[in-house]
Sequence to fold (276 residues):
Amino acid sequence: MNLRAAVTLASPAPASAARPALPDAQTVTAVTHWTDRLFSFRVTRPKTLRFRSGEFVMIGLLDDRGKPLLRAYSIASPSWDEELEFYSIKVPDGPLTSRLQHIRPGDQIILRPKPVGTLVLDALRPGRRLFLFATGTGIAPFASLLRDPETWERFEQVVVMHTCRLAAELEYGRQLVEGLPDDPLIGDMVSGRLLYYPTTTQEPSARTGRITDNLATGRVFDDLAIPTIDPASDRGMVCGSLGFNIDMKAILEGWGLREGANSDPAEYVVEKAFVG
Ligand code: A2P
Fold:
């Protein structure tokens, strides 16, 4: 098992002296390498940036010719945080992540301050249970939503299903979820209302198997001793690879849930996790 401790690099003082040299520049304040393939980082937050938990922004670096190389990244930090956090895969020959993985505290990145996205509470009709389904770095928007008091005001229970190939790849999400009861802002709201179901698919761990399979067989409902999905009261948010999103849509629609949007809230919403 690859359970190395995550390595965090942090700068003592965020940004006060940083002079933007890039368009829409923000300064990196901390970087954590979780595995050889995954890292998270924090940057200064533009003073004017307001976003809804679950939304994404375009971030990136200048390429060799000095042109901005940008990709969509879900904001993983809650909307009240002074800084912004992101969680990323490292693709060895990915145009952006092959370079972005080398950022260090004090470096600058480009951040376009125009948040958008469909994984927002406003795109869901009122309900009792909220299911968050993520593979890989798809946990990032849920890291934001789980720390938002509004999530806990709108729903009685939140069920988090996260699947990765390896146990070490679950660690960012695990530390976040397991830290929620101690969160000074929402800790009391979370108590007894959060169910967490992490699984691996390519090495043994406490729980294994794809989310899609664990839903289709009913195993997750048996393991957690909860009722199966009911479109009258259950809502879902899906964030993962394209194949995962397609398979999840079929499963959720099979249960009678309809896809919602900001302009037309319904029972579930879906967004592709950033890759590349
Ligand atoms: P698996 O190992 O069985 O392919 P990836 O790193 O390729 O994005 O995958 C992340 C996790 O998502 C893996 O555990 C992978 O399982 C799972 N996964 C990939 N595609 C699907 C899919 N179509 N439905 C459900 N889970 C999937």
